Amino acid sequence: MQALYATTREVGVITLVDLSGRIALGEGSALLRKTIRDLLDGGNNKILLNLGDVNYIDSSGIGELVSGFTAVRSRGGELKLLHLTKKVHDLLQITKLFTVFDVYTDEPTAVGSFK
Amino acid sequence: MAPDTKHLEVTLDTHVESVNLAEEMCLRVAEAAGFAEDECYRIGMSVREGVINAFHYGNQEKPDKKIHLGIDLTGEKMVIHVMDEGKGFRLADVPDPLAEENLLSTSGRGIFLMRAFMDEFDVVPGRTGGAEIIMSKKLPVPKSASGNGNLRPSNSDATPHQEA
Questions:
Q1: Most C-beta atoms within 10 A of its C-beta, which of B42, B50, B78, B138?
Q2: Global confidence as pTM
Q3: Shortest CA distance to B116 belongs to which of B44, B65, B42?
């Protein structure tokens, strides 16, 4: 099973996390949790997750996205999503989470949306 | 069991790796049965969620308990059984993850996904005393009772822990 990879880059005042692989029970979910926690601990609370190369998310991964969303919000920040693959888009739609997350299809618009 | 039903049964350890193993096994069977890529994805996801449920909620991640996975290929459908050794549960007691108050819950979407992705879904008391998830997906091309010789459980190159 394909692992998850995460790299972070600063774009203006936000931190953009490029993710690729699977966000699933085990290492994938754990890496996403650690990445968001480390960013928050470092004082970065404007986070954009680029899911363009994430081809699979299971219920554990969905839970981790929600957990990250609420953790960032509780620190006064924002967590948004960029470039959903069709599978991830459909999954967020049927779970009604599409109404919870701010989702963007292009990076400049997503970056500019942060307050 | 009908005479033309192909049956595969394995016993998995209560370990996170069993989730991947079960998914891979069922994907191989689904591919061999002729399901298209999208349907294989839905079947794989459902098996994954069923085994996660058994691993986490049923067996409480206790390593001395087992997860029992069964796959039946009949002439009409692929039936998957996931049984744990926990205390069992009633579907009626599972919170609706789409309810407004549960949308930000970090868990509780597995049952919903299995129901959404499979044609049939039920939970019954298992012979081990735990819960048994039974779910099925119709085969892509209807087969006559005698014309399903090309359907085969592809267990020849998957050799998981076999129940004694």
A1: B50
A2: 0.88
A3: B42
